């Protein structure tokens, strides 16, 4: 995660519906003691949870299509944040339980995260657009 001058990760906002669905997902036995699931729980614990109707525009939620740019290389990426059973890397559908997925949840346009790819590259992904998805 990007750590601003305060040393803290960027603040995030999550809808009550997404938080409830994610907490239910993480209660499943296969996610107990899973490092990525624990990281997602940590993200949810620090998130500002708001009613769905109060969810600000331009914030990454479940099924959002996220456009971002790697500030290190200028590469543009388009990802859709999905539940694990919907993940399809070839179609740009990233599981919420993938490290980059849990890191993107709740970020607003303009915020960024540092993400280490499985190939060992460090990306600084800055959210440039968020298109809400259907639930």
Automatic annotation (TrEMBL):
Residues 10-50 form the Regulator of nucleoside diphosphate kinase N-terminal domain. GO terms for molecular function: DNA binding; kinase activity; RNA polymerase binding. Keywords: Kinase, Transferase. The keyword Transferase applies. GO terms for biological process: DNA-templated transcription elongation; regulation of DNA-templated transcription elongation. It comes from the Bacteria. PANTHER family: REGULATOR OF NUCLEOSIDE DIPHOSPHATE KINASE, TRANSCRIPTION ELONGATION FACTOR GREA. Residues 56-131 form the Transcription elongation factor GreA/GreB C-terminal domain. Gene3D superfamilies: 1.10.286.20, Transcription elongation factor, GreA/GreB, C-terminal domain. It comes from Luteimonas marina. The keyword Ubl conjugation does not apply. InterPro entries: GreA/GreB_C_sf, Rnk_N, Tscrpt_elong_fac_GreA/B_C, Tscrpt_elong_fac_GreA/B_fam. This is Nucleoside diphosphate kinase regulator.
